[in-house]
Amino acid sequence: MIFWFIIPMTTGAFGNYLIPLMIGARDMAFPRLNALSFWIFAASGIFLYLGLFLGFGPNAGWFDYVPLASRLYDPGRNIDFYSLGLLFNGISSTLTAAQFIVTMFKYRAPGMSFNRIPLFCFAFLAASFGLLFALPSLSVDLIYLFLDRNIGTWFFSPAHGGSTLLWQHLFWFFGHPEVYILIVPAFGIATEIIPALTQRKMIAFPLVAVAELLVVFIGFGVWAHHMFSTGIPQTTLVFFAGATAMVIIPSSIQVWAWSSTIFAGLPKFKTPLLFIVGFILFFVIGGLSGVMFVAIPFDQQVTDSYFVIAHFHYIIFGAAVFPIFGGMYYWFPKLTGRMYFERPGQISFWLIFIGTNLLFFPMHIVGLLGMPRRVYTYPGGMGWTAYNVVETIGGFITLAGILLCLGNLVASYRRGPRVGHDPWHGPTLEWTVPSPPPEYNFAVIPTVTSAYPNWEGVALDGDPLDGGHEQLQTSFVDARRAQLVRMPHSSPWPIVFALVLSGLFAVLVVQKYGVAAIFAVVLGLTLVAWHSEEAPTLEPALHGRTAAWWGMAMVIAAEATLFAMMIGSYFILRFKNLAWPPRGIPDPHLVVPLVMLGVLLLSLVPVRLAFSAARDGLPARARSLLLAALVVQAGYFAMEVRLFSDDLHRFTPQTHAYGSIYFTLLGASHAHVALGLLLDLWLLWKLSRGLTQYRLNGFHAISFYWLAVGAITTAVTLTTLSPAL
Ligand SMILES: [Cu+2]
């Protein structure tokens, strides 16, 4: 429901289709990467469901709590399919998030400065940042779980210095922001439908934009409210209860802005607006029951009961899915050139609205009566039966409404009345182009002077760009024309890459690590083949940084978060253990690792100088500087591998949770150095064939990558040395 329905439905479908149209772009920033996201998403879904059909469904619930999910209590392949499937899916979501951010930063139409970005896009920006910074936490958690189950590490085993709460901390550091990642795009859909169907500008436009970002930001500081009954300290409980209460502020701003815009405008209660009104009601009810959990004793009473399920579904179904239905009706004429049938549309709304309330409202009551969640049956005579019967009826009414909605859309696609390009007189750019939009979206890239371009005028005075494959990059804040670029043509490599990656995950699930290594090598070769064809750049960049640089910045942000989570878990484990390192394992040596760190940091200087030389048009000088850096970095890597294997003679990842986190942290950091060496080699090979703008962009990104490796290695080295400091 979360990973393979709502996220792909909002970010995948709505975002991919509408964001380029709304910001006046011809395509997403990295079309091939976008194809890769899609294929990885499809493959990961097939992977997870294959597990289900082979009898290995995720049988520890979606929280996947340890020790229930450990090898001891769950000996089948079930959890391996689940953990690897989520990791696999996470790659797709991370790439998509980075893609959305760079597209909205660099490909807005000229004149669409930051204060003129449609609120729909702001919402997707917020959700994308949420994904980028939340998913690494889940990924780290799933990697630990995989290692515990298959390699014999002890991350989650208290008897060996591990911690079961470590799973919960990392899971909820992802899990709470995830709720906002699901719901903020729905906010965005609402803030498009309301102005169009009331013919009034959104009240408090800037406040709503800030609130959309703020709700995700605050969402990162509240995760422990899912752990109020685990026995964490009182001070922690109070802090997280207070932080959670803050979510009320941005949420209320938005509810007030939506409802006052409807009251102040001239609302036409067509199907899309009905779904939005339903959404506001659900959001208020679900929000109020959510606020109740801030009262710690109340939370401890109702946690793991149906009351939580009621609250959660008022938010996740009522508030997140209702705008998806509204959006399907609202943009249907844009997608097809035809209008949907209004009467069955309204009936579908009432069926879904009534059905959903019958389905989820009684859960509040049975929850308070004590019915626990995650049960498929219960003994008679508990007083829960009547409520559950009502819920079942509500479920079928909801289903009827959904079927009517889908049936209506299919029938309208065939026989709906043809409408022009702008049936709603909507405010944003997508309503200025024909329905359905041509493949290149805009023949002439529009120039924008307001946040409501279709109402207040669009200038079409730009050059008609050639062939549908040219696109304009603009500057980050003011959206001034920066660079004309040519978008890539179709390529087989994304699908090949996704296939090889599927192979890699398939052999991991059956523990064939040697074969997995071969797949990893093939994966690297696929990337080299992918990048052998270079996109010609039509002119040098005028303002600011290129999309390639921003793309690398997003990857680095995700990687840095990954390491932050690993370093965080190091300290969670450290403070749980009285002796660290445990008896029998010596303290780490200080001198050699610190000297090595210094050597690695020094090697960043020639990398930077090499880039400057390349930018000044001196490829020979750039190559020799890069070669010098490569020699030093390779020496560093060889020495680190030696230190690593020396350590392995004294203790192993299987000795104690100390060994588990020590070797995982160092191994991950060394892997990043190894990747950097491969990038150096690739760059040297490219530079030996001359200098192009494309290679220069690549160089810029790789020198930035090394800077990040320097920072990450410093943090990891200081962490692993901390017991001796
Ligand atoms: Cu939460």
**Integer-rounded radius of gyration:** 27 Å
Let me know the number of strands: 4
Structural class by secondary-structure content: mainly alpha
Shape: globular
Low-confidence stretches: none
Q: What pattern of helices and strands is seen along the backbone?
A: HHHHHHHHHHHHHEHEEEHHHHHHH
What is the CATH topology classification name of the largest domain? Cytochrome C Oxidase, Chain A
Name the hetero compounds present.
copper (II) ion
Structure, described:
With 725 residues, this protein is mostly helical. It folds into two domains: 2-415, Cytochrome C Oxidase, Chain A (Up-down Bundle); 565-724, Up-down Bundle (Four Helix Bundle (Hemerythrin (Met), subunit A)). Helix content is 68%, strand content 2%. The chain has helices at 2-23, 31-53, 78-106, 119-150, 164-198, 205-219, 234-246, 248-264, 271-292, 296-302, 306-336, 342-368, 385-415, 453-456, 493-509, 513-530, 547-576, 591-615, 619-650, 657-687, 693-721, and strands spanning 447-448, 458-459, 470-474, 481-486. The strands form two sheets. The protein has a two-stranded antiparallel ribbon. A two-stranded antiparallel sheet has the order 3-4. α1 packs parallel to α3, α3 (78-106) packs across α17 (547-576) and α5 (164-198) packs parallel to α8. The longest helix is centred in the N-terminal third of the chain and has 35 residues, at 164-198. Residues 176, 179, 222, 225-226 line the site of copper (II) ion (CU).
